[in-house]
Structures are given as C-alpha cells and as structure tokens.
Write a structure and sequence with these properties.
The protein is an all-alpha fold. 67% of the residues lie in helices and 0% in strands. It contains four helices and no strands. The longest helix is centred in the N-terminal third of the chain and has 35 residues. It is elongated and about 70 Å long. The relative contact order is 0.10.
Length: 100
Amino acid sequence: MSGMPGRSGPNADRLPRAVERIEEAQKRLEQQLESCMETRAEIMCGIMTVRDRPGQEVLRRRYVMGQNFSEIAEAMGVVQRRAYQLHRTAVEGMAVPKRA
C-alpha cells in the first residue's frame, strides 16, 4: 500500500520535493517571460523608428511574428525580392537606441 498517508521511508518526501521543483520552474518561466516581453518591447520601439509603413510591416512580420521572407511577400502582396529590398531599406533607416 505505497503512497498511503503517514507512510515513512525513503520516498516519504518525494511529493514535497516535486512540488518545490515545480514552483522553482514556474518562477524561472515567469522570469524568462518577463525578459522576452522586455525584448519584444525594445524590438517594437526600434521598428517604430522606421519612417515608412511597408518597412515597418516587413520588420514586424520578420522579427515579431517570425515569418520568413516568402510568407512576408505573400502577406504583403509583393514578390520575395521586394520583401528583401524593403527589409534592407528599413534596417538601414532604423535609429538604433544606445544602451546605458
């Protein structure tokens, strides 16, 4: 009758240790999520420095949505080569903020 309440032995503290590990993993996950959200906000601020809307859209689709250039071109109704051109122009026109 293993797992019965009040049982002692080598496995008696397995559940509390498992709960502790889960809680630690949840804390790490929350920290990672916060870091990702901060990075996303920085990326969006950088994208907003681009003056033209198509350039902003390409950067947003590429770096926020994770689309490849084929997907970007299709979504924007342009050929893939044009998506690359818009990307290059947008990146060259970005104002890169200085970090403290």
